[in-house]
């Protein structure tokens, strides 16, 4: 970790913040023997478990916009992306590692308000506490500097909006480490023809909220700026804010693994159509879903393009899983509703479509193509 | 992992490349049960071991320059940074995870030559093979795009140098996972007063080569462009290129752990003065070193500022460790020379300096201050 004085200040702030939390006992089960401060973190794995690791970048203008997303939301989403990958495998989170490069203006207080980085960590650490995961290390760097670029929208006047001078982008990469009983992690490559297809929660909400943000980027950021307690905000608003504060479905994934309910699973990060396509590709199967069975999020259901958002809208971070047709599943798991939306079919020959969708107004199923995920650039 | 078509192409290229290598058996011991392609990678930890994890960013203009560093060198250095952290703890590498964001021009072939990304992976995977570490997953994204920035030096005319139009920077984050016997990992916080201080290899070479690069950035890049076999190039030139192809001291670190020789260890990534300061701070001790004992790299020894480079020059990626005064160490470990350079002193009171250096022409030791690491911006 080569570190400039500014990086060391950031690292030191992070370290004291994390250690303070650890001392407060806000994280119950701590498998971290050596945390931030040495060349590596040292972790102990519970006996009989294997290790799961995932990494996810959160890059400004690609995965978030500084003028649309409050810092607490950026931190929350950064961690949520990794936790959702663990949830999809049925894993229990152990530790997170964060690599973070920030431009100087995000390290300093702005007009008496906490610095962007402090609010970013508030969002990230609030979710970490909730999910019992320790931030055990990472890397810090100064973000590459440019001259004359525009970050954010100068009209909305959020953090660091400038047309001239030298600045940079916020760049984060989160690593999540989890564990699962040996040989039991849920895979996306093990769906079988005849299995039923399920999703958790509701679909299209994240895309619908993103569309609202696009129309009025400042509204939510202002609410966040005025409310100092990001954790309360998050807890109170999570259901209404599927895009800004997605809830990784860890308890559902763990139940699917422990009760041996699921034959395969994946998280819906790119949109249902794209992630179902991944699952079909990896499992060597086809799939048919019924439009009428898709559980629409209230934010999506109110819109004329509700079906499009539910099928192709990204970042819902719900779970998509399969179970044998003989498996009886409850209507909800760990408080999250479960909906059966279709079934797995045998692999088809040649160029036939991998996915079909039966629409309410059609007599037969039509091809469904993967079409999710767009940048914010 | 939300993925655009371009990102998926990059991911797919990486995956087939890694799987081809795995099938060829170029990596002997494979603890990876599920690699690239699912939500998480699944790893098995050898019994009686604990887990070591480190992350290191490699950001263009901060950690490397596209016009100074051949893509093979960027890939090699990216992995070497993480491996060196494992070496400092005495760990055995298990797997690496790479998060990589690239601008479009680095994904495509350039005038019939392999794409930047291909050559980056050649450098990274050659070192991975040599060190028996599997690239088991990661994340890919498009790099944030800017208008009107200049990347690289237009005179040297390397990859992607442009003053106008839209482009971005190469951004990488490497995660290294390793293992060590439970409770035995070498720490930087366990040096004791009376211990002797040692370094591996030679110091100041990386900074001296960087100074050469600064004078003539194109020379080495041209050699690399003309030689298609990066692995051979690396093997033949590593000793002469301590900056471009640093060699992580894994075998030395493992021997220090296994033979119980070291009482503490750290790698020299920020420069001897800065990393010795870290070790003293974490161990709560002071240190005195002798200038005449510092093993100068031939590239540094030829220069008038040799001592400065050896003390403060970053990125040598040698190991700095302590051993009890009664411990007899060989002159070299795993073919790497070992030099005793000073000793650990008890903590001093108040504002007295933490580190002292005895220079050849001085009668008593003078304060040594930490002063390593600069950006390439």
Map the helices and strands.
Two copies of one chain form a homodimer.
Chain A: H1 5-24, E1 32-34, E2 41-43, E3 49-59, H2 71-88, E4 92-102, H3 116-130, E5 134-142, E6 146-147, E7 166-167, E8 171-181, E9 196-200, H4 205-215, H5 217-226, H6 230-237, H7 250-258, E10 264-268, H8 272-283, E11 286-290, H9 298-301, H10 306-312, E12 318-323, E13 332-333, E14 336-345, E15 355-358, E16 366-367
Parallel strand pairs in A: 4-5, 11-15
Antiparallel strand pairs in A: 1-2, 3-8, 4-8, 6-7, 9-12, 9-14, 10-12, 11-14, 13-14, 15-16
Question: What does this protein structure show overall?
Answer:
The structure is a homodimer of 377-residue chains. The first copy, chain A, has 377 residues and is an alpha+beta fold. In chain A, 30% of the residues lie in helices and 24% in strands. Chain A is built from ten helices and 16 strands. In chain A, strands 9, 10, 11, 12, 13, 14, 15 and 16 form an eight-stranded mixed sheet that branches. In chain A, helix 2 (71-88) packs parallel to helix 3, helix 2 runs parallel beside helix 7 (250-258) and helix 4 (205-215) packs across helix 5 (217-226). The longest helix of chain A has 20 residues, at 5-24. Chain A is globular, with a radius of gyration of 21 Å. At the A-B interface, strand 2, strand 3, helix 2, strand 4 and strand 5 of A face strand 2, strand 3, helix 2, strand 4 and strand 5 of B.
């Amino acid at each position: 970790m080569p570190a400039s004085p500014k990086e060391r200040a950031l690292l030191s702030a992070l370290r004291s913040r994390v250690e303070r939390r650890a001392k407060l006992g806000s994280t119950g089960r701590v498998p971290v023997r050596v945390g931030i401060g040495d060349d590596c973190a040292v972790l102990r794995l519970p006996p009989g478990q294997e290790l799961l690791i995932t990494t996810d970048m959160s890059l400004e203008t690609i995965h978030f916009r500084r003028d649309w997303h409050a810092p607490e939301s950026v931190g929350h989403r950064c961690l949520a992306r990794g936790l959702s990958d663990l949830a999809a495998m049925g894993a229990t989170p152990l530790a997170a590692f964060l690599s973070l490069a920030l431009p100087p203006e995000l390290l300093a207080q702005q007009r008496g308000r906490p610095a962007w980085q402090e609010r970013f960590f508030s969002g990230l650490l609030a979710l970490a506490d909730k999910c019992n995961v320790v931030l055990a290390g990472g890397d810090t760097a100064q973000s590459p500097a440019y001259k004359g670029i525009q970050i954010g929208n100068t009209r909305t006047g959020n953090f660091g909006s400038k047309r001239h001078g030298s600045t940079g982008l916020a760049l984060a990469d989160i690593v999540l480490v989890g564990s699962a009983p040996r040989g039991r992690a849920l895979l996306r490559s093990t769906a079988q023809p005849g299995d039923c297809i399920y999703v958790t929660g509701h679909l299209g909400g994240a895309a619908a909220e993103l569309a609202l943000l696009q129309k009025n980027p400042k509204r939510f950021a202002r609410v966040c700026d005025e409310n100092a307690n990001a954790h309360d905000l998050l807890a109170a608003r999570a259901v209404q804010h599927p895009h800004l504060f997605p809830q990784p479905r860890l308890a559902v994934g763990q139940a699917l693994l422990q009760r041996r309910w699921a034959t395969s699973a994946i998280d819906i990060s790119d949109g249902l159509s794209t992630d179902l396509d991944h699952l079909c590709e990896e499992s060597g199967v086809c799939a048919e879903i019924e439009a009428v069975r898709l559980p629409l999020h209230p934010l999506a259901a109110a819109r004329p393009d509700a079906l499009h958002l539910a099928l192709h809208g990204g970042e819902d971070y719900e779970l998509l899983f399969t179970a044998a047709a003989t498996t009886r599943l409850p209507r909800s798991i760990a408080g999250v509703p479960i909906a059966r939306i279709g079934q797995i079919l045998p692999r088809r020959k040649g160029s036939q479509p991998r996915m079909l969708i039966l629409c309410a107004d059609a007599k037969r199923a039509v091809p469904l193509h993967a079409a999710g995920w767009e940048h914010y650039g």
